[in-house]
Known about the structure:
The structure holds two protein chains of two kinds. By secondary structure, chain A is mostly helical. Among the domains of chain A are: 133-180, no CATH class; 188-395, MetI-like fold (Orthogonal Bundle). Chain A has helices at residues 14-19, 27-49, 68-90, 92-103, 106-128, 182-218, 220-235, 238-249, 253-262, 266-280, 283-290, 295-331, 342-349, 358-384, 387-394, and strands at residues 147-149, 160-161, 164-166. In chain A, strands 1-3-2 form a three-stranded antiparallel beta sheet, with no helix packed on it. The longest helix of chain A has 37 residues, at 182-218. Chain B is α/β, with parallel strands linked by helices. Chain B starts with 6 loop residues before the first strand and ends with a helix. The radius of gyration of chain B is 26 Å and the shape is elongated. Chain B has two domains: 7-266, Rossmann fold (3-Layer(aba) Sandwich); 322-402, no CATH class. In chain B, strands 5-6-7-3-8-9-11-10 form an eight-stranded mixed beta sheet, sandwiched between helices. In chain B, strands 2-1-4 form a three-stranded antiparallel beta sheet. At the A-B interface, helix 1, helix 4, helix 11, helix 12 and helix 15 of A face helix 2, helix 3, helix 4 and helix 5 of B. Bound molecules: adenosine-5'-diphosphate (ADP) and magnesium ion. Magnesium ion binds at residues 56-57, 197 of chain B.
Amino acid sequence: xxxxxxxxxxxxxxxxxxxxxxxxxxxxxxxxxxxxxxxxxxxxxxxxxxxxxxxxxxxxxxxxxxxxxxxxxxxxxxxxxxxxxxxxxxxxxxxxxxxxxxxxxxxxxxxxxxxxxxxxxxxxxxxxxxxxxxxxxxxxxxxxxxxxxxxxxxxxxxxxxxxxxxxxxxxxxxxxxxxxxxxxxxxxxxxxxxxxxxxxxxxxxxxxxxxxxxxxxxxxxxxxxxxxxxxxxxxxxxxxxxxxxxxxxxxxxxxxxxxxxxxxxxxxxxxxxxxxxxxxxxxxxxxxxxxxxxxxxxxxxxxxxxxxxxxxxxxxxxxxxxxxxxxxxxxxxxxxxxxxxxxxxxxxxxxxxxxxxxxxxxxxxxxxxxxxxxxxxxxxxxxxxxxxxxxxxxx
Amino acid sequence: xxxxxxxxxxxxxxxxxxxxxxxxxxxxxxxxxxxxxxxxxxxxxxxxxxxxxxxxxxxxxxxxxxxxxxxxxxxxxxxxxxxxxxxxxxxxxxxxxxxxxxxxxxxxxxxxxxxxxxxxxxxxxxxxxxxxxxxxxxxxxxxxxxxxxxxxxxxxxxxxxxxxxxxxxxxxxxxxxxxxxxxxxxxxxxxxxxxxxxxxxxxxxxxxxxxxxxxxxxxxxxxxxxxxxxxxxxxxxxxxxxxxxxxxxxxxxxxxxxxxxxxxxxxxxxxxxxxxxxxxxxxxxxxxxxxxxxxxxxxxxxxxxxxxxxxxxxxxxxxxxxxxxxxxxxxxxxxxxxxxxxxxxxxxxxxxxxxxxxxxxxxxxxxxxxxxxxxxxxxxxxxxxxxxxxxxxxxxxxxxxxxxxxxxxxxxxxxxxxxxxxxxxxxxxxxxxxxxxx
Lengths: 395, 438
Ligand SMILES: Nc1ncnc2c1ncn2[C@@H]1O[C@H](COP(=O)(O)OP(=O)(O)O)[C@@H](O)[C@H]1O
Ligand SMILES: [Mg+2]
């Protein structure tokens, strides 16, 4: 009976209320739980029941396999959906405010559109366009509308006019030496990029944000030890370590992702720590402590969400770093040659740069645009995610 | 109803350790609050007034146990705790400083706080409604609609509208945020609200509105209030009684009218004289408080206010004009802390005699003191000062210009009706009165 309830603050019988059960999950946590459980079940089934060579969906008649990396990827996507996208929907007023602030930065809006394209292509592309097969006969085909000396292409797939081989729509961006379509590889590369971006970032955020908040909250020797470790990791010759590890264990994509994520969070930890320290001095934290809330609640509900601006701006710096690192390692021949990452395409095309520049240019351009886009978006987010500062500036 | 006060603070102390070096050894303590005692009756408003840095905020956070005090007790008799008596060991069952986790959580529903800075007192990423409702949630009210209904109703009571529930802090003005802060302090239905400079950050017109609102809410819901401010005029508007705080200690406490009509402590007089007088011909003299509150790590000995006091007592046998004596004391402490830039004075003045004269002028000292003994001492000190021997000068001044105020820590003197102050002049007056009666 809603109408019979006391609805004035001074009529609440606290003896009664305070005893009531208090454990309840947020919508976001429930959603994540409900969607993660089937994912885990599928992974367990794949791992325990099926042998290694059987594609995951074979029992239902589909020849689709799910590699380990994809479970991780799916999980990070779920996290993204429930803890980034859903909150934006749950708080429309704040979202609109952020958007108004963000929109002021035109290049950032264009960049965001581009990142959206990368996201959608990376998600859908690999499902529509499978990784291209080798076709030695069609090596070094030029992109459509362009032409090369026919002597450079094994057999020309398009027309040959005056000894010049013209590109066709079969290979819109030409082919590699092995005769794989660069466009198809590129589209698959979007998927790889997403996986690197999402999973490495997830690892870095979890480690960095936890170490940062624990350090800020525990203080004393815990803080001291954690921050000294962060210093060590920051000055560690990471590249040499990558080389050693990859040389020893082989350049597998999952290993690369793991390494990138695990050894890149020191900046994040520092940012989050200092942000958390400054937040804990704010009066609203005193006010929340005045409510008698547990330290966990204060951190989980107030300190971490308010550190989000630091986390997010750091992410926009981290991801370009990951993508570049992957490209560099691939270029050194230490990447995973079994995947069509942008870095791998570039590495594969470097010998043919003189007569088949499209192999390097297409992924290079896409990589460049993506990194640039992250920088622009990062800048705009830094401004948009800080309502107080903006509100002060307007007065 | 018993006649025990709602809140009773006894010898409350909060010392912040000062740590230094590799091993984090404690090398001293900032005595932010150093043994204060006061009571708050039910429905009463007690003002706590003092300059910035006197320890008012620390006192507030220690009373509500946002920080653990380092000494003393805070007995809170509200919220069904009335009528408790002391245990055998002398501890009080209602001593907040000894509350365990459950008791403390219940205590949070009985005592709430309003903070000074409206711009940072709300989580910028939470709608203000949720911020207020979170108080209810933390205390176990899981029904979202019920929380919302209560908070919306309360927002209306503090002069906002129910629709404001979903708005964010950056959409409100400082005054509006302070209204919401009041709503947040009230939502758990407390008996005591501690308001730490609730209007100090607001414009004058808005200040009056918020003060009015506080008074209305207090009357409607029978609240008791600990009202902190550095501004005597605000205190006079809302408080029944006032406690004047200086450097961690309460130097005077009494009914507001008493304190305003007949201030006993020189510090209170100084604070009162800073109120702009509506009547320019009013005869209250203007007393300027020079300098800032000393560092609580090394508080002055004896009466802590003597370094800035306009009524600082002269030693026996000395009879200078009071303002000259105060200037001497000021000079003494400035020299002792090596704050006088002789180099710069010399640049402007030139010869030694001119330097000495210049220092006198700067400290409002006459070129010739009326007491020859004192004049010789001062001259000696200035000579050393002009010769760049500030240590020697400090030595001379410290040895000769000693005030009884720095030698004894003043006891409280009762002026009747709960009006109490701590100044050694009272003791002397009491003594001389006794002589007169004989
Ligand atoms: N956490 C702390 N550590 C050390 N000193 C502190 C701390 N908090 C306050 N102080 C000192 O205590 C004194 C009183 O501060 P405060 O209570 O904020 O004064 P007020 O509210 O009257 O302005 C100041 O000198 C301040 O430097
Ligand atoms: Mg203060």
